[in-house]
Amino acid sequence: MAAPMLRWGCPGTRWALAGIGGGFRHRRGASIGSTPNPTREQSTVAQKPLHTAQKLRKGEHKWAAVVGLEIHAQISSNSKLFSGSQVCFAAPPNSLVSFFDASLPGTLPVLNRRCVEAAVMTGLALNCHINKKSSFDRKHYFYADLPAGYQITQQRLPIAANGSLAYSVCVGKKRGQLVSKRVRIKQIQLEQDSGKSLHDDLRAQTLIDLNRAGVGLLEVVLEPDLSCGEEAAAVVRELQLILQALGTSQANMAEGQLRVDANISVHHPGEPLGIRTEVKNLNSIRFLAKAIDYEIQRQINELETGGKILNETRSFDSKLGCTVPMRDKEGKQDYRFMPEPNLPPLVLYDSTTLPAGVDSQQVINIDQIRDMLPELPSVTREQLVQQYGLLPEHSVTLLNEVGLLEFFQNVIKETRAEPKKVASWVLNTFLGYLKQQNLTVSESPVTPSALAELLDLLERKAISSSVAKQVFQELWRGQGKTAAQIVSEQKLELLQDPAALEQLCLATMEEHPQVVMDVKKGNPRAINKLIGLVRKATLSRADPALIKDILEKRLWL
Amino acid sequence: MLGRTLREVSTALKQGQITPTELCRKCLSLIQKTKFLNAYITVSEEVALKQAEESEKRYKKGQSLGDLDGIPIAVKDNFSTSGIETTCASNMLKGYIPPYNATVVQKLLDQGALLMGKTNLDEFAMGSGSTDGVFGPVKNPWSYSKQYREKQQQNPHGESEDSNWLITGGSSGGSAAAVSAFTCFAALGSDTGGSTRNPAAHCGLVGFKPSYGLVSRHGLIPLVNSMDVPGILTRYVDDTAIVLGILAGHDPKDSTTVQDPVKSFVLPNLIDVSKLCIGIPKEYLVPELSSEVRSLWSKAADLFESEGAKVIEVSLPHTCYSIVCYHILCTSEVASNMARFDGLEYGHRCDINVSTEAMYAATRREGFNDVVRGRILSGNFFLLKENYENYFIKAQKVRRLIANDFVNVFNSGVDVLLTPTTLREAVSYLEFIKEDNRTRSAQDDIFTQAVNMAGLPAVNVPMALSSQGLPIGLQFIGRAFCDQQLLSVAKWFEKQVQFPVIQLQQLMDDCSLSLENEKLASVSLKQQ
User: What is the pLDDT of residue B482?
Assistant: First the structure.
């Protein structure tokens, strides 16, 4: 999980919010008489920047995009949803397959208590209504990695419904303003994962691995309340943080523990919704945002050039950066849903409905799970803002980057520097270096203690902030020296003797009479040039404010 | 020895009058002699002899495991048996050797029972004749009984004796034939719409369908999950009770089994019939009912009445909708349950490999017979989005009404319902195949399938021989989970009617006959 949410340029937002006019009008003319070539069309769109919005012409409508997500989160559990097989990523193929997972005739599902608890916990964290009675259904389709020919899911009566998820996105010119939003959650259902198919085209073979078959999934279905890739990305990231905080899913997208499908359509506000497409195979948050924005733009282009949107499934090609129709031989599927007859309805209790004298191992008490809920990310962020006076967007970044919050808190523990200052260093300098080298927090060469020591030097005014940056760079190289060692070896201490500094200022003024003239003529920027020259002479070891004071005194008195 | 009750044999084994191995060999030799009945698909001779040896050791040490230790049993070939081929009488599962035992099989083995083999059935238990399996039809042992043959000679029909054999009914016909021909003392059947009770009626046996949820289905290859139950076929009601006592109870592997601790199923020798209220559902008096069955039914009611029981006519008003409703629910679940047979993980796989889809299609076409494919097709039709509300949902609602009919009757004070099990006695194979499987299933399940829709316990008790010398049985239906009470009534009735023992001496002695028939059986097999 690399992409920091705050840093994404998400041009899609702007046109989605601001609307788009006849920006592609000229292309309509161009396509008349020529055979539409979908491939070329796609590449044209892909190269085109998204924010080509032009001013609305009179009588033309805005486009609005409607995006809904279906998110599958693999439940963090030792065993599968309906069998005792172990759950483990990257185990040897077909080594974690029970008779039930392989659908041997006569085997029956037995519901895993842990998965139910995880679903209830997730439902509570997402403000859902927990259904005291839910049921399981069979969803039929033939696929080689679905051994029973059906998936057991909760289509009619899911375990949780009608929830909501608060998230925030950055808006404004510098994306510095955080706006809180809310997406409604339609339902959360328990269901089985499928196995994996590996197609070997060379030998015309398909290899099946059933290790994943039957692993418990939480399908979180969102209402189509989103309007662009950035919002979708923010929602998924927030959900990921929640699931990780709850421990109900590791939610690692790269390992397939979190999978997102997006339903996308465009329409003119006030008119009925457009025909939607479903985009699958979105295995990172960044691609999710890209795919959605691409698909929205593609649909708009298609409609503006007189084309039609097909109700189809598309996949995102991360190399080409575009969505392409998926080869779906069977066309429209009828899943022939049917109640799962081998599982009685799942009944949950709360403290008021719990039958007397019942074995607590045999029942699930919603209230008990509610009491066990850990601190959720939104609360953590609020506390960061309150406790340390951080900006809300900083609290967002601290949580969004894996391990960054812990790093920040460890620095805080060891330094006398102000939390705000620490946040600035962690979020700008430290995170900047990580991003530049594509490293995670845990891979950082700079430890929290090293940074804390550096910030202490800065706090004591032993070094200037520009020297601090220089020292940080040294620390990043990781040669085993402490900040203090670097400072003393390279003589980077701040020049604090006023007489010596005054001497340097006078010498600089003498050397640059032209700049002095400029200052005297009233060019306000000229003084900065002088300050820079003095600092250079001090090898950046002097406080610029102090230099400025001396220079001003000398120039105007 | 072979005709005795379970308890008698168990006592004989304990007293050393016979050893488990001797008993096992007797049954094995009888299985050989009656091979032409086609009751068994697989005879697990080696397994049985090994189990007998183990059992014998236990008896010698005086450490018998219970009433079933050393007792030969048979299991319908739709129960998973570890290491023993389990075919469901289908090409689809020919050669499939399960790696696990069905819970009911395991429970029997844990009690020291000897598994003689896997019995024949209609393919995937879809049928009411035991005529539609890939291994050929099962022949009713009564076709060769002295009782039937004597009557046949009195009214010669001119038809050849050998082609005039009778069907067992089904789909657990192999299990029924196996018990009826004395090749074992008890057999497991399965009962989804009458598949245990129907062949029991035709073969003069006790055929018991327990309450849904009382006995584990884990390892029973499903027909209709919401109606399937393992059934028990024995010659005596007491034997059924002993087997039920072993099988009943919660199974963590089957979430639909009830958690309540199981009560004893030991049946009293004497019950006070005068305290009973017997209900006679008027809807079961249908025009197709043979006059002989009708008069025996009436006689049975009189018998209870004469002993002081209250016998009243009751109404189950939704009975007439039951069979169509059953058809929809059955085929829908069949369509779903059969989806797993795709040739990938186990079972038959065709040679076609142009694409996965082509492989599926050919595998399933080659693997399933017309009956199975027909039910899959209709089931998928009923489950289509556009049909689901109109068929499946409606059928479920009607099912609830049918179940409520029973609840209402039992709430009105009725203890047990008394009905026919079948319309008439067994018919000949040639007669039976004049109608197709679907028509026959609808006719033959008429009195039995409503019980499955309601999840109630029911038992066929043989009552008397027809004018043709063939068994006729009646069905008792009990309250849900009142299986013990139901069997107690059945035991009382059994004692009153003194149903005659099948006389197969001639068959057993006449080797030439059995050889001749064996040839015939193999010929008919090849034609399949």
Answer: 96
